[in-house]
Design a protein that fits this description.
By secondary structure, this protein is α+β, with helices and mostly antiparallel strands. It is elongated, with a radius of gyration of 16 Å. It has a 4-stranded antiparallel beta sheet, covered by helices on one side. A hairpin with a 7-residue loop joins β3 and β4. It contains 2 helices and 4 strands.
């Protein structure tokens, strides 16, 4: 890997991805923020490699940058599912912590 490339993050808008996190879509927000941290490189053969440094083992290859980004997102999603299933501690990404136990309201609060 010899040349770093940074594509524009999807849905970043003019304020970037460090906006408030919607609790209803916390996993989607986590994925978007992790993808914003992705690093891509143009390989010697013209293909692309990508990784998310904070998520160990999340790497992907593609013949185009778009294909690499799509594969990286899919790999991240699978990595999260395996992590949830096996009870792995997941890295906190931009303050989004998927390791927290849910807080429950008392029954009489409803």
């Amino acid at each position: 890997m010899d040349k770093a490339i940074t594509p524009e993050p999807a849905n970043a808008g003019s304020t970037g991805l460090k906006a408030t996190v919607n609790a209803h879509f916390i996993i989607s927000d986590y994925i978007e923020h992790a993808m914003a941290q992705a690093e891509y490189e143009n390989l010697e053969d013209g293909s692309f490699g990508g990784r998310i440094p904070s998520c160990n083992g999340v790497i992907a290859l593609g013949s185009t940058l778009h294909e690499c980004e799509t594969e990286l997102r899919s790999t991240l999603e699978d990595w999260l599912l395996v992590g949830f299933r096996l009870g792995h501690h997941l890295p906190v990404v931009d303050g989004i912590d998927l390791n927290k136990e849910p807080a429950y309201e008392p029954v009489d609060a409803v």
